[in-house]
């Protein structure tokens, strides 16, 4: 009698006002509660199932169940099933509700249908399609009925009019064993083999009493041998979305299109908006499957890309695999290689397409190549294109699958350097205007150098060409100018950002060594660091070394890698130099920029505490850089950095036999040879050889920092060697020859200009 109230149907699925009491009794006597909209979503699909287990359902996740209620417009039933949940431990009354178990776990879910009308009511819950069944299948489920309600299993076929019809042929109908007396009895149906598509239906009927009757269903299980519409990749075959590092940014080197793991380093991606997309997997396929498909058991290694095309999929729903764009490449050479495995009846092609996916060139991929390496060359694609791998044709009557692995691309991009020296057409180098200058290093920051103005203000330089120490370095440093082609630089060095402005360069055509030395540092006291930016190409490399002041030997060398480099110096209690030693076994180049030295060093006034025996103060030594500016031997008919002043009545001159000769006449009475501008650090002497003939006289003049032609003196002799003493404030020197007031003609020969210190010691 307690169940006479249970089948007020609106109380079950309508939750309409006025039926709250009936719902309370359902909760009280059965311990079940309606789940609103519990079956609103399901995994039912018009596509045929691929595995029998696809139809298993315990309603814990009803949205994944491949079953649903029969639609109202099919006119095949009068009621729907609804989802209920067991909310407490109340047992079902064994003699009234069965034959399913009386004890149901709290949280379990099941579907429920019923009514309390006299007219016959029935409900159909039916499956996704089954294309065909090779052998007898088995469908089982747990069920409970109350009063007159009963359950059966039916087979449904398409009726050709958009609906379904039940199969009534005796030989095709399921054999049913749905006991109603014994407790814990399942409903078991044997499904005969079928060679055409059908659907399974669980039909509740006999709901026709005013006392109320109902049916509850749970734990649907289906087993059978299905016809093979899918490729048997195994139960453990799992795929994930193909999430790579491809975001549409053009590649910088062709090697960036190499891909063997399809991870964040891969520059390939599923390319369009098609529903069937490329995915990633590392699942192992069976040797039998591989052997049957390709004739070999060779399998992809690690992670690889997979495209699975289900039966009946339209071609326009199958996606492509595409690379990131290639801005520009040479036609001289390119090669795309990859390996693939093909399952089914499928044809692939690789295409170069423009950025709007318009074909430029397509190359077929021979099926016989699987799974060996495929090698393809594009002969028409040069600018702004992508490479795609796509399905050209497939048999839609079956499932098809393609695996792809070990993609590699080799090409000469327009931004690739053609040699270890190719860093752009704008790159030029000029001689460095700095030698070893023997200037004082007051503080560590004095050694900082950005190579501006051809490094003329840097306290760094190459070894003196007159020094025996040049035996350890046969190449020279120069100053480079840009701007550089950053793409080419990246292809050579792996560093995208190049030096700015001027920078140091060591170039090696056939290998060798080039050394750049600092001025003498009296000692390193605390936290001395040498920082710089470095780029190397070819076989070139760089070491940072310490050099004894009195010896050319390189000590305590540390190798430096390209990039931002920081070298820490230990405390050193004697004078030393820092050396950049660039060396190469073959062709190569070293670029260095932005040298910054920090930390505490000994100032020159403290030098005597730590001086070597060979140390002498540098304050009295003229700047060797000025020596280079002012010294000249007129070799090869050139006046070095001196220039004849262009004034009215200037005499004719010429250079021959390493001598400059000026010819004076009444109309050309004056000749002025003007030095470049310089800046001395101490007193020095400029020596010269000369010869005067006829009525010519010679005067030596200089400019100071504040006065032009501040002082001149007349050279009294007519032939020999003389000098002018230059002060630290002098900025220019002039050699002026002119005729005497009554003179008619004359000449001057001058040669071998040489700067020395006040002891006449040559300093360059």
From TrEMBL:
InterPro entries: ConA-like_dom_sf (IPR013320), MAM_dom (IPR000998). Residues 444-604 form the MAM domain. GO terms for cellular component: membrane. SMART domains: MAM. This is MAM domain-containing protein. It comes from Caenorhabditis angaria.
């Amino acid at each position: 009698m307690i169940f006479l109230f249970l089948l007020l149907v609106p109380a079950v699925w309508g939750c309409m006002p006025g039926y709250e009491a009936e719902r309370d009794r359902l909760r009280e006597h059965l311990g079940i509660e309606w789940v609103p909209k519990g079956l609103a979503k399901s995994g039912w699909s018009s596509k045929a199932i691929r595995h029998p287990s696809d139809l298993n359902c315990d309603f814990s996740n009803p949205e994944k169940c491949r079953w649903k209620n029969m639609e109202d417009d099919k006119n095949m039933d009068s009621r729907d099933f609804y989802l209920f949940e067991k909310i407490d431990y109340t047992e079902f009354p064994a003699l009234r509700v069965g034959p399913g178990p009386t004890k149901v776990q709290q949280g379990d879910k099941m579907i429920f249908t019923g009514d309390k009308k006299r007219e016959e009511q029935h409900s159909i819950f039916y499956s996704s399609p089954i294309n065909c069944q090779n052998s007898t299948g088995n469908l089982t489920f747990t069920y409970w009925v109350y009063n007159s309600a009963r359950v059966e299993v039916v087979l449904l076929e398409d009726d050709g009019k958009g609906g379904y019809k039940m199969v009534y042929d005796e030989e095709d109908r399921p054999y049913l064993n749905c006991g109603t007396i014994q407790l814990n009895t399942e409903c078991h149906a044997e499904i005969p083999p079928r060679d055409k598509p059908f659907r399974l239906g669980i039909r509740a009927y006999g709901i026709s009493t005013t006392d109320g009757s109902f049916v509850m269903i749970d734990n649907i299980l289906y087993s059978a041998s299905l016809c093979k519409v899918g490729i048997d990749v195994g139960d453990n075959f799992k795929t994930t979305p193909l999430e790579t590092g491809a975001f549409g940014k053009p590649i910088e080197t062709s090697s960036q299109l190499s891909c063997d793991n399809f991870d964040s380093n891969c520059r390939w991606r599923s390319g369009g908006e098609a529903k069937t997309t490329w995915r990633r997997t590392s699942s192992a396929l069976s040797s039998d499957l591989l052997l049957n498909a390709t004739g070999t058991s060779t399998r992809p290694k690690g992670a690889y890309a997979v495209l699975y095309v289900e039966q009946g999929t339209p071609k326009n729903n199958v996606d492509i695999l595409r690379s990131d764009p290639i801005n520009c490449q040479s036609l001289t050479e390119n090669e795309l290689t990859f390996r693939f495995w093909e399952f089914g009846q499928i044809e692939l092609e690789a295409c170069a397409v423009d950025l709007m996916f318009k074909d430029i060139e397509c190359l077929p991929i021979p099926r016989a190549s699987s799974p060996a390496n495929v090698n393809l060359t594009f002969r028409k694609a040069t600018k702004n294109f992508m490479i795609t791998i796509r399905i050209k044709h497939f048999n839609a009557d079956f499932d098809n699958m393609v695996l792809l692995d070990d993609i590699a691309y080799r090409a000469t991009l327009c931004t690739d350097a053609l040699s270890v020296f190719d860093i752009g057409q704008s790159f030029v180098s000029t001689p460095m205007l700095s030698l070893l200058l023997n200037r004082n290093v007051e503080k560590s920051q004095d050694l900082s150098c950005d190579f501006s103005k051809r490094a003329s203000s840097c306290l760094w330089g190459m070894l003196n060409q007159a020094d025996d120490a040049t035996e350890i370095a046969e190449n020279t440093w120069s100053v480079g100018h840009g701007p550089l082609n950053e793409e080419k630089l990246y292809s050579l060095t792996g560093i995208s950002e190049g030096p700015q402005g001027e920078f140091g360069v060591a170039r090696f055509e056939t290998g060798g060594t080039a050394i750049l030395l600092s001025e003498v540092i009296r000692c390193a006291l605390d936290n001395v660091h040498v920082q710089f930016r470095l780029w190397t190409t070819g076989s070139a490399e760089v070491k940072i070394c310490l050099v004894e002041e009195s010896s050319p030997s390189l000590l305590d060398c540390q190798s430096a890698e390209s990039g931002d480099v920081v070298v820490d110096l230990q405390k050193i209690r004697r004078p030393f130099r820092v050396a950049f030693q660039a060396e190469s076994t073959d062709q190569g180049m070293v670029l260095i920029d932005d040298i910054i030295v920090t930390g505490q060093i000994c100032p020159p006034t403290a030098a005597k505490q730590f001086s070597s025996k060979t140390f002498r103060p540098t304050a009295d030594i003229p700047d060797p850089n000025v020596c280079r500016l002012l010294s000249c031997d007129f070799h090869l008919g050139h006046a070095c950095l001196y220039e004849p002043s262009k004034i009215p009545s200037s005499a004719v001159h010429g250079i021959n036999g390493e001598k400059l000769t000026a010819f004076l006449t009444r109309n050309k009475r004056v000749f002025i040879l003007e030095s470049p501008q310089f800046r001395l650090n101490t007193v020095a002497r400029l020596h010269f050889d000369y010869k005067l003939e006829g009525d010519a006289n010679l005067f030596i003049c200089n400019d100071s920092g504040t006065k032009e032609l501040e002082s001149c003196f007349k050279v009294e002799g007519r032939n020999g060697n003389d000098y002018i003493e230059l002060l630290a404030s002098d900025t220019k020197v002039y050699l002026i020859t002119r005729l005497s007031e009554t003179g008619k003609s004359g000449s001057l020969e001058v040669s071998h200009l040489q700067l020395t210190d006040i002891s006449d010691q040559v300093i360059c």
